[in-house]
Every structure is written in C-alpha cells, then in structure tokens.
Amino acid sequence: xxxxxxxxxxxxxxxxxxxxxxxxxxxxxxxxxxxxxxxxxxxxxxxxxxxxxxxxxxxxxxxxxxxxxxxxxxxxxxxxxxxxxxxxxxxxxxxxxxxxxxxxxxxxxxxxxxxxxxxxxxxxxxxxxxxxxxxxxxxxxxxxxxxxxxxxxxxxxxxxxxxxxxxxxxxxxxxxxxxxxxxxxxxxxxxxxxxxxxxxxxxxxxxxxxxxxxxxxxxxxxxxxxxxxxxxxxxxxxxxxxxxxxxxxxxxxxxxxxxxxxxxxxxxxxxxxxxxxxxxxxxxxxxxxxxxxxxxxxxxxxxxxxxxxxxxxxxxxxxxxxxxxxxxxxxxxxxxxxxxxxxx
Length: 344
Ligand code: WQD
Hints:
- The chain is an alpha/beta fold.
- It has 11 helices and 13 strands.
C-alpha cells in the first residue's frame, strides 16, 4: 500500500460506531484523516477513544453533511482525495414513521458530498450500503448479483437510492465509487475505548443483549422462535466492526492504487456464516460466563427470516476476509458495555 500512504481520507459520521473504528484502521494503515460529524446520534466519546488508541489528534469539524456551505468549507480547507461516507440516519422503525426525515437527511447529504467531490476534483468514495437492499432473498447466501428487492423501510430505500445515485454519478464523471453492503455489524475495538453507543432503547440485538446483561434492560425479547429455521429464530451474518472497518481501508486502497475493475463496484461485507438469534444469545452467555434474562416474544414486523453473505468477491477482489471469531467479537461487546457503564 505504498502509494496509499500519506493520502488523506475524509470520514463523515466519524464519531459514530463504524466511523470511529474506521478512523483507527485508516490511521494504522498510514493514512491521514479528517472527520466530520453533527453529533445527531453520537457525542465525542468515540473520537476521544480514537485519539487514545492511535495517539493522534483527529482533525475534526462539527458539521452537518446536509449543510452545503459548511461542507464546502471542509472541502476548501482540507486536501483529502477520498471520502468514506457513513453519516446517515439508521433506525429502521423510525424511518417508517418519519420517511421524509430519512429521505431528506440520507439523500441530501450524499448529494452534497458527491457534488462537492466533483466540484473540487476529489477522486474516490466509499458508501455505506446495507444487506437490507436484498430484502427477503430466496437464494442464500446472497451475492452482489442477487437482485435487490423493493425495500421494506424508508431507511432501506435510502440505501438503494444512494447506491443508484452513486452508480450514475460515477458513470458521468471521473469519480470512482465503492458501495459496501454491510451485514450485521457488532462488537467493539479490543481496547474497549470505542464501541456502539445507541441512544435510548436499542433496536439492534447485540446492544440490547449487553444492556440486559448490565441490568439497564430487564429482559431481552427474542423476536420469534417459529421461523422455519433449525431453532426457529432468525438467522443473520454478524460481522465484527473492526473487520468491517478494515474492509473500508481495502476499498480506499483499491481505488487509490487503480486496482478497481470498474469505476463503480459493490462488495458484500459479512463473514459468510449465518448465526441464529438463539445461537448468538447462547454464545454471548458462554463466552462472557454470565446468564442473560431473555424470553421468546412474537415476531418483529419487517424482519426477514434469514440472510447471510457470499463474500467471495470481497475475499478475492478486495483481498479482505473477516478475521475475528464471533466469540471474540461478543466478548469485546461486553467489555465495551462494562467500560461505558463504569464511566457513568
Ligand atoms: C437482528 C436479529 C431480530 C433485537 C438492521 C437493519 C440493517 C442494519 C442493521 C443498520 C433479528 C432479532 C433484535 C431484539 C431480537 N442497519 N432481535 N431482539 O434487523 O437484522 O438489521 O440493523 O443500521 O439494515 O435492518 O438487525 O440487530 O435489529 O436484529 O430478537 O431485541 O435479532 O428479530 O432477527 P437487523 P437487528
């Protein structure tokens, strides 16, 4: 990655869960970084954590990507050639209740970034997409060629629309783009200095598990044990957040080094392995040597039964593969939860 070194990357949503982990991996791979975030769903906890882990001061601007003028100032001020765009709203349920909030935020911010990249001749962009674009696929595992199905939430639709915007922007300019379709990101940095910080009641499984284990939530509800899966609960592909962060470094390096085969590419980022909710709950208890209070509850509306990735393309083209075991990932999630509670 010699040519990639000393290149600067703008990370939007850098104070968030995946953004903060990606800052660490970029710095450790030799990149300079600049981060922006509007703290709409975060605070400076993880930015401070990134600085503690890397020993580097992170150039940071508190900016909303929807604010074109403020973003333009960032483009004028910093000499990055690549952007990783994490900044977005991501609560699936809320997006169904407040679709316009999601469309305005997730799409307007991305348009600003792409327009400014073209205006200021910046070259490479990685976009945070999601496995949600596959919907309930009949064929598993899903490959990047598996047809996208109509989104079941406005959140999911913003991911599909932004993928299409990126495809068209790349086709009509010198821009190179990679969309990474994340499966279920979980876990925390091994230092436990950065991790997921959901506000209010968590929607996602692992933060709900760790908060139940720490006594903040009384009981985990397992949403459905009557699916036609081996143990009746839903199956997902849980990807460690540090592994996921590394996929972004590989994607940026691929474009900088000109190794991309097309100017717009898509990669699944998962482990390739499906794990059921009940398996995950059992593993969390075993690995962390604790007992979790949980009950079986009705199915959650909108959940797909089963989804996991075919990761061949990322393995062969990006030279990236998930490394960390699910056990270690679940241990890191618990270590982070305990660290955060100890600070309260
Ligand atoms: C996982 C499994 C639940 C909570 C969503 C988005 C996706 C991505 C990640 C990002 C499911 C079950 C959950 C609980 C449970 N986007 N569950 N009890 O729904 O696969 O993916 O988050 O930000 O785009 O769609 O993730 O963690 O909510 O659920 O039983 O309290 O855990 O039913 O089977 P999901 P999840």
